[in-house]
Design brief:
The protein is mainly beta and about 350 residues long. It is built from five helices and 16 strands.
């Protein structure tokens, strides 16, 4: 922080700089399959059924399936994409069926803030001020799993960058003992961008996801939701960029006449909002391939058990997913607005 007069009784300045470096540890908990389950071995768990043996009854109202032999998914039936991903899964580190994995990543914050102001007294009747502020912050909110799996469970788990600035200039002029004019102009801008935790190229093709067009700004893995287990991949709503700008011009005149004080003036304001938001035709907040591994209607004869969802993942059988639409649909737009206002006030002071 620094400040003081530059020219005695004429020119003054003030400036400050603030830096924030913070690493805050977290304890994130999720559920992971055991090593043998990740390889397709479900011995000792509830029975799992072979989706290739689906058969409807005569009325077509229910479906039945036969069990996998020894409650194992044959290696030949494992989906190659799922097998690559499962090989990267860490092993559970807590002796528990559910919530059996705890990780301790750190939220990382790096921020800088600058504030400055200058005042100039041209005369007793004429004064000017200038003000400028700038703020920048990089905030990393990690997922529960190591890269590239990430395991984002919420839209706030991403790489978040913010920049903001504001500037203003104002002049006060005293025309006489009963007439004063105040003129101010200002501008502010906020840039907000949420990106992938794992920056760089989209990793879908590297792991075997095919038919997905690449879009600039999308990196890391697709998002995969496996009911009862940790999600895999980046958050579905990134990248997500927004910019907001406001410019303002304001003038105010104060006139004192006898027992009356009149205040009148005008204001003009210009606003621009820009956004480049990830979205898809089906999911309003999905930017990338999104796969949900849940329970299909044709599985109505099977027990409701989370390991069935894991089996669906290992077999590459997505309940529903958004692929082409989810990756290449990025919605961007610019919205502008203007605002004008006039003001007139009158105060009367009566003496009794």
């Amino acid at each position: 922080m620094l400040g003081g007069p530059v020219v005695k009784n004429k020119t003054f300045f003030f400036a400050s700089w603030e830096r924030t470096n913070e690493n805050q540890g977290e304890a994130l908990v999720t559920t992971l399959p055991t090593g043998v389950m990740a390889g397709g071995n479900f011995q000792g768990a509830l029975p799992i059924f072979d989706p290739a043996t689906t058969t409807p009854n005569a009325a077509g109202t229910i479906f039945t399936r036969t069990l996998f032999a020894d409650n194992r998914i044959p290696v030949s039936r494992l989906d190659p994409v799922a097998a690559k991903l499962a090989a990267l899964l860490p092993l559970p580190n807590v002796a528990s069926g559910a919530n059996n994995y705890v990780s301790s990543p750190s939220q990382i914050t790096r921020a800088n803030r600058i504030d400055s102001r200058g005042d100039q007294d041209f005369s007793e009747r004429d004064k000017l001020f200038l003000r400028y502020s700038y703020f920048t912050q990089a905030f990393v909110n990690p997922g529960v799993l190591p890269a590239p799996l990430i395991g984002a469970t919420g839209n706030t788990q991403n790489n978040h960058a913010t920049q903001a600035l504001s500037a203003a200039v104002g002049e006060t002029h005293i025309f006489g003992p009963n007439l004063i004019n105040e003129l101010t102009a200002g501008y502010s801008r906020i840039y907000d961008n949420r990106g992938d935790l794992l920056s760089g190229a989209f990793l879908g093709p590297q792991f075997g996801f095919s038919g997905i067009p690449y879009t600039d700004g999308i990196g890391g893995l697709p998002n995969m939701s496996i009911s009862g287990y940790s999600s895999l991949g980046e958050a579905t709503n990134v990248p997500n960029k927004k910019i907001a700008e406001v410019a303002q011009l304001k003038d105010s005149v104060t006139w004192i006449h006898g027992g009356h004080t009149f205040k009148f003036g005008g204001q003009y304001e210009w606003v621009r909002s820009y956004f480049d938001v990830s979205s898809s035709e089906f999911e309003s907040e999905a930017s990338r391939l999104l796969c949900i591994f849940g329970r299909l209607h044709s599985e109505s004869a099977e027990p409701v058990e989370y390991r069935q969802r894991l089996r669906r993942f290992l077999a590459g059988r997505c309940q529903y997913g958004h692929s082409v639409h989810a990756v290449h649909r990025r919605r961007s737009a610019t919205v502008r607005s203007w605002f004008c206002a006039r003001r007139l006030e009158s105060d009367f002071e009566a003496h009794v």
